[in-house]
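REQUEST ID: PR-0412
SUBMITTED BY: lab tech R.K.
PRIORITY: routine
TASK: structure prediction, single protein chain
INPUT:
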Amino acid sequence: MKKRNVFLVGLLGMFGLPFAASAATVCADGCDYTDLASAVASVEAKETITLNEGITIADKVVITKEITLDLNGNDITGSGQYVLEFNAKNTNFTLTDSSDTAGKITGLQRGILVTSGTLTLDKITITSVDRTIQINPVTDGGAAKVIMEGGKVESTGTNATRTIMLWGNNVAGEASLVVNDGEIIAPISSDNSAAINLGSANAAGNTVEINGGTITGHNGIRLYGNGELGMTVLTMNGGSVNAVNAGIIQSANDGTENTEIYLYGGNITAEPKAGSATVGGDAVAIHHTQSGILVIGKEDGTGPTLAGETGIALKEGTVTVNGGTVKATGEYREVALAREDGTEDTGAAISITSNAAFAGGVSLTVNGGTLESANGNALYEGISVDESDTPAATESYVSKMTINGGTFTAGNNGIIYTTPGKTSTTNSTEIKGTTTITDGTFTATGTIDTVSCSATVENQFKDNINVSGGSFSDVISSFFLAENCVIVKNNNSYIVETNNNSYAARYAGVRYNSINEAIADCPTVDTNPMAQTVYVCKDTSENVVIPKDKRIQLDLSGYKITNDISSDQLCHTITNNGSLIIRDTSAEKNGTIDNVSHQKAAIYNEAGATATLNAGTYTRS
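STATUS: complete
OUTPUT:
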């Protein structure tokens, strides 16, 4: 062992002169120490140990004082269960590399164990077969924490590999991980692996905070609760998670419920890749299988981007979406296939499936954000079925869905409600819970309504679904409207609002701000030869035109139509180029068509047009 000039350092300290923290060196020959264990045992707290060459460790080295370990471009290889352990209450440790080419710590079994204190990682690479970093508080040891500022942590195992594992061990100390930068990697070929494994069935107060960096694996982050809220908490403010099965997944084991997940930023993506392990169901950004809290986005509408074949798969839990974007790219499925070991895939941005194996219930609130599905539904809710078309549940476990805002875009439906077995009437299904829509924008690019359910149960659903607001690309069923609410056509959107009785016309249950707009939505005679009835809803000034290819029955409903004189060109009140029938179904039968312009008529019938006047008063004021 080479002696260091401790006397000179002491003199500098006595006279208050500045000096750099002492650095002990380790190498086989010519350094302060020939092995790492001796250096750790001998140095003072706050000192730095620098490797001058690579070393091999047979037995775990336990560090119990505040030191910085600088790999200096060299490697440590350990053949024991762990390479290093950090264990000192309320103590800070640092693993770093001051060289241009960062060194590497390799565990032939596991990597680093943190049982007490805070370890900060930067620049170095750490690899092992499994549990490359395990954060495992010990009794009376206080908190055990890892802060990752950079570098890479990777596991290489072939079965259920966990790269960073937080394991509470049923003690009072909190296990926590903060990721600010760097890479955490689990093999995608390892079935059921996770880059981060948070908590366990007996964990106590485990937390993970993701602010940056990249997390990659078969699963990105797996969570285990212990039955109590506040014990297993994940917060994501930035960074990215890339997975082939699930970006974030809850354990489905008994006794591991009540996790908390808060996603305020970053990106989470799940997509199958060549060489990945076989998965059951769609790849999903989030697979929420148990009770607990899931919050996506901030109240200002900002939030993460989540993408998968199914965006979010929900079987249980209380979920709030405030902002961000959830995207789905998978195939559309009208009814989900029941699974206990994977997602019940629907290709929806948010997919809620009821399965008796997960009967805790779902409560969903959407206040903002964007839900997009390329091929399926923006929001799907239904009961899954097995391969023989038998429902996985006899009732829906959704207690409440409330939509107060957000944008819903889908390749098929904006929102769909189904019974198991598609439209089968042989399945006994009890409809429970309520869905309330107060606002939002819903766009369906397919041919089905933006809000729909199986035709055989539409009437059964009408008391469970209440729509009092929102903008829809298609007409929704009047069964779903809340009391005293109507659908109003505005440009190319259908708006649900409280009825203010200010609309000019009504056609097929939709209100319009002009009679001409209602007529424009009527089909042509070659599409539907039946006369289309347009109801006048108030006294109005308008120059009405009946196109040549339409057959219109205009119900005056006791109101008065006067020609519009606001334009420079004076017009007839009604110009008929096609087929027109006028009736009045009001009790008083006092509907009137008036014209107030010189040389213009209340009704002008073009050559070849037909008009049948069954009611009404026609005047020129």
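NOTES: The two ends are 116 Å apart (CA to CA).
REVIEWED BY: pending
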